[in-house]
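Notes, Module 5: Reading structure tokens.

Key idea: the token line is not a picture. It is a compressed description, and you learn to read it the same way you learned to read a sequence, by spotting repeated patterns. We will look at two proteins. The first is printed below with its tokens.
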Amino acid sequence: MTAAAFLCAYACQVYDESDLEVETPEDPGEVLTGGRAPTGGAPFVAMPNSGSGGVPAAGGAGSRGGGGSGGRSGVTGSMGGGQITGNGGSEAGMGGEAGSPGGTAEPGSGGVENPGGSPEPGGGSPAVAGGGTTGGETGGASTGGAPVAPELIDDCDDGNNQLRLNQERNGYWSTFGPTACNNSPTNAMATQFMSAASTGNGTGLKALHFVSQGGDEDSCGVGFDFSKPKAAYDASAYAGVSFGARSASGSQILLVKVATVGTDPMFDFCDDAAEPGSGEQCYDHFLAPVTVTATWAEYTVSFEELMQEGWGYVPPDGFDPAEVVGIQWVAKPGTSDFWIDDVKFVE
């Protein structure tokens, strides 16, 4: 065989045309659009999507990283402003360079989280997030103004005869005494029990203005129960009670009385039908005298200074702040004209 014939036979055997055919996979999976075959490398073979990003939202899908040199690119989804990052491709194609990472998703429309903001005075609905996942969670409804201090019993500003609904206190104001007292306000004025507070007669919009003609004993007064229906109220967390007051009829003595389950007839410790001198009579409440002047001032009565007059039933354990029922202001005999506002417990 000649040399030319030998070379021809060897070349034809090595460079068979079938060797240049590329087998196509039966299921190439999802075709990545970001990659391309490198120059001079093996043909590009599509790989299945390996990114772990979320479902694209209206703001647009996260971009797929470019598959450099036939590599596999991660996919990053957009969750309306979320920051979920897909796994970047890391495998190198045959003869190519590693694929570039998928990167961080761009925010969708309104993707910035809205913290909800501060509610408007008077109560407001939580703000709605513009696309964030937790927007509006910190927004909340207001209760209608500044928070009520737990010690506040009544500031009288709503004008009616009910206490501020606070710390399970829901009782009512009322006046009491014999007909000779001719008290004002009357108990029929439930929705207009309080009066407009003029200068020096209160600290807010309204205050209690009590007027009586007086009787022949300490019997004309005004006060409230802590709850309705009447029940014992636990005030043991406090040391006393305070209130603002002014007398419009010159300096006068008011008896500040605290009724308890032992001195109120409803609880059957005292006897409402007991004879005087029996030591079983009701209404001998624990009290402290307070001299109210013509100038508006704040007065404080501590529980420690309360005592009974001694003509009625005496509870065996004395005054117990865990068993209080209500508070009263009783005028000494004669004409009485005074203002009261901002009744509250003191620490």
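Here is the second protein, with the sequence above and the tokens below, as before.
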Amino acid sequence: MPLDRETLAGYLSERLARRVAVTDLVSFPRGTSRQTWFVTAREDDSGAVRDLTLRIDHPSGSIDPTPLEQEYFVYERLARSDVPVARVLWWEDEPRWVGRPFYIRERIEGDWRVSHFSDPDPRYDPLRIELAREHLRKLAIVHQVDWQSLGFAARLPAPASEADAAHNYVRILARQLATVSEEPMPLALEACEWLHQHAPVAPRLCLCKGTNGYGEEVFRSGRIVAMSDWEEVSIGDPAADFAFMQGFLQPIKRDGIALWGLPQALDYYRSVSGIAVTAEAVGYYQVIRCVRLIVLSHNSGAAVRRPGGTVRQAWTGTEVLHMARHVVASAMGLVEPCSAERFGELNLTVEDTEAAA
């Protein structure tokens, strides 16, 4: 069934018990795991306007093995915390509307883009550093969430202890690999054994966001007003959240002086959170991240063969899979590392993966 203005107007009118017209429906172009739609609705009687966000799996399915309803659950629970998130409104799994489940949340005023962030001019180095620090401040709030009292352990596999954090993550990956495997994956299985052997002890157990960095959060006036993309949420080592932090860990060096990078980010994070995360632990979780990319790639490859498969899913199921395998194999010492430029496609750095070796 198509997702169109008329269908959504009918749905919202039923939910709100008043006639509603959908005046705008725009697909968010970023992201590959699921579809995000921006909805503008106007109530016929009062003229009140609602700005909403709708999340739904692709017609061919999500590349993420976790269910969409879990994402809704995360938003609902985080609304009871200090983490800035959009308020969820409705979960819908009645197939008569669009044929597959979706949920709707409020849309927070702001943008994932910040002017001049990507401008290489040194004048904007302070802007880049401050936005990275702002992200770390908000991430520190996430890591302070009382995940036990909010019921996250009822939905997410929780480690038995700080020493079990990495092992727990690897066990999750192994189960996902067994579920989504489209072909034998001896390298991935070998990587799980390697990860068990090299597992670090977490400084504490916390809620981890999973997908971080520029493009994942909503900014307004230089501050994060909403944290988005919670499909990779987990309970474990805060170092895991540094394993995928696109844009905010990029080294900034001027006149031979390192102004920003992983060491500076870890120092700043410790100053605002009180939690010590090591570069070695970040490198370890970079490898875990790549094994997870193998999971996502196999899931994406399966989606391509279903009706509604996309070119982006085909790319994820091939190129991303190849790159993730190469990074994992190089971290284990089986092959030479690929070039820094190729690592950049996965938001990794050579230094990160070498730290895990």
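Summary for the second protein:
- Residues 285 and 292 are 10 Å apart (CA to CA).
- Residues 349-357 have pLDDT under 50 and may be disordered.
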